[in-house]
Amino acid sequence: MEETEAFRVLGSADRQLLLYELIHSDRGVSEERLARRVAAYRHRSPPESVGSEQVERAHIRLVHVHLPLLRRLDVVERDGDQVTLTDNRSRDQLLEAAAELDGWPPDDLLRLPFS
Description:
Layout: H1 3-10, H2 13-23, E1 29-30, H3 31-43, H4 52-72, E2 76-79, E3 82-85, H5 89-100, H6 107-110
Helix pairs in contact: 1-5, 2-3, 3-4
InterPro entries: DUF7344 (IPR055768)
Protein name: DUF7344 domain-containing protein
């Protein structure tokens, strides 16, 4: 993955949050859980307080925008509805680029009552 592509991927707050969740999981994470967590971060609410419409919008963005891009770049894998990070050079390049960002992890979005 080119460095510019890595930074383009990291240009999305939702993708940063998605990657953060996957990095901190020792196994696959369901699309539903990822959508709920991303929606919670974006709306600064505990996951159980996020409305179904907000979760649905996050899920649509994950399924139709973010996950396809990350799969195409070989950064994530899907097994059913479980999503995991790959263990390869593409993932490493993306995380190396993330480490260069001043805002990684996206601390401003991660400071929540449920964190």
